[in-house]
Amino acid sequence: MDRDWNDIDELIVRRFSSVLEPNEQECLEAWIQESTENAKYFEDMQKIWQGSEDIAAFDAIDVELDYKKFANKVGFQKHSINTVSQSLLSLRKIAAIMIPFMAISVAIVLYQTTPGFGKWVAFSSSTEMIENELPDNSTVAINANSKLVFQKSFKGQERLLKLKGEAYFKVAKNPSKPFVVNVGDAQVKVLGTEFNLEENEKTGDVLLLVTEGKVLFSTTNNELELVKGESAICIDGVISRKNNISSNIMAWRTGEINFTKAPLAEVMETILDYFPEVEAIENNTNISETTMTSKFESPSLEDVMVELRIHFDKKFSLDGNKLIISD
After folding, report:
1. What is the C-alpha to C-alpha distance for residues 87 and 226, in angstroms, rounded to an integer?
2. How far apart are the first and last CA of the chain?
3. Cα–Cα distance measured from residue 326 to residue 316, given in angstroms and rounded to the nearest whole number
4. Which residues pair with 291 in a beta bridge?
5. Digit-coded pLDDT (tens) for 255-296
6. What is the pTM of this model?
7. Full 3-state SS string of 67-110
8. 81: Cβ contacts below 8 Å, ≥ 6 apart
9. Per residue in 199-225, pLDDT tens?
């Protein structure tokens, strides 16, 4: 029985981009199994694609958008193939030309769009903070488990970056070229200032604290202009001012933790933010009105837990990545 086969090359790219619909997947698999030529063609394209994946430095920035950009920029010739036999004839004729063309096109597109390949730079942190100087002499400190992508030379009308996680930016002044950071649903635009920007991995909320200068914090829904000492939060694409933020929001960068009459809940919030080895807290105790006043300089988790046991008269233990509190 004859079947309609359209845009085989596009289906293959969509498969590699993980955006293939179930019905498209079935069609592609059937086409691959029709002949050894089809299977070989698919394998050759897969090798080229996997070679590009090995250099990808930022995990799934926007898979759907990346696929669309890839397909548009590479400019695959779409094969209007009416039957299986026609597809075999067409692919045999173009295979020798298409594979080298794919390699060159992929290289060009990756240079323009893929972090770590050419035009874009990406770096990430695992369990420790790292600091870097950007092409415009701005500096950035990246918290643990965070990633940053930016243009290698900051060409164009804006200095473009994308953040996942938390970072502190000290931006070099350049009134003619705004410094733009995209994070979650929000965007931060400045000319020259300092600010701390954090995306909550679990909720997707974005928290901004301005420490110098002026910052424009925006989404597609609204925007706020913030100055030194002000903070705001973006929740579900809506930005609002936030007046009560932890006094230890910058502890990850400074190494200093300060508690002044802090209740247990505030202390636990700081521990979650400061220690990457703590991913969850289980509190099995009764509500306590006890507070804590103390100061730590680049402490270990055990250092803090020793004082917590004394101040709150409770047991603090680590089970894997979970901190457990009990009476």
Report:
1. 59
2. 72
3. 7
4. 263
5. 999 999 999 989 998 998 888 889 899 999 888 888 999 999
6. 0.63
7. HHHHHHHHCCCCCEECCHHHHHHHHHHHHHHHHHHHHHHHHHHH
8. 4, 5, 6, 8, 87, 90
9. 988 889 999 999 999 999 999 899 999
How far apart are alpha carbons 95 and 326 in whole angstroms? 67
Q: Which two tokens stand for residue 83?
A: 């039957």
Distance CA 8, CA 41 (A): 11
Q: Which two tokens stand for residue 123?
A: 């770096």
Task: State the Cα–Cα distance between residues 272 and 261, nearest whole angstrom.
Answer: 19
Query: Which string of b and e fits 248-273 if b means at least 16 CB within 10 Å?
Result: bbebbbeeebebeebbbebbbbbbeb
Q: Which residue has the tokens 């290698």?
A: 152
How many other CB atoms are there within 10 angstroms of residue 153's CB atom?
Answer: 11
Are the CB atoms for 239 and 222 separated by under 8 Å?
yes
